[in-house]
Specification:
Length: about 80
């Protein structure tokens, strides 16, 4: 199987992952403190939100939510 064929076969899974990440990030607007606060970043308000097989970490500052990165659960953080 070529790399191009592999990409085609995994495209639906990638699309589902992107949809779940976008949906979770959009949900943060309505419920910004839904994720678990990570004390190691104190005094900053950094939180984690499990999403599918991954995790979204985000920071709340006044009226801004920043999502610096999303991790897969098998990836080193």
């Amino acid at each position: 199987m070529s790399k191009a064929e592999t990409r085609v076969l995994t495209a639906p899974a990638a699309a589902r992952t992107v949809k779940s990440l976008v949906g979770a990030s959009a949900g943060l607007i309505a419920h910004p403190r839904i994720g678990e606060q990570l004390d190691e970043f104190s005094p900053r308000e950094v939180r984690r939100l499990p999403v599918g097989h991954g995790e979204t970490r985000y920071e709340i500052r006044r009226d801004t939510i920043t999502v610096p990165r999303n991790w897969h659960t098998r990836e080193e953080q």
